[in-house]
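[Meeting: bench + compute handoff]

Bench side (C.D.) handed over the final construct sequence. Compute side (W.E.) agreed to return the predicted structure before the next meeting so the bench team could plan truncations. Sequence as handed over:
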Amino acid sequence: MKNYKRIDKEEIKKDKNRNFRERIWFIKYWANFIKTHSDEEWSRGQAILINSQLQSARDFYKNRKVKININSKIN
């Protein structure tokens, strides 16, 4: 017989409640940040984030090609 982990409904409720509170806090934090910072400052931050995501994607595919080439030589 398989061992199943018992689901604690109260623990799930607590996690959902905590998650909801964290989301509300972040929405309020971000709205306040946008209100209190200039468009230029906000845009610079977004550019840094977007550019780093693009660089990560480039690095991922670059490294993936290397791994594929290495594996194809072994086979």
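W.E. noted at the follow-up: DSSP finds two helices and no strands in the chain. C.D. will use this when planning the next construct.
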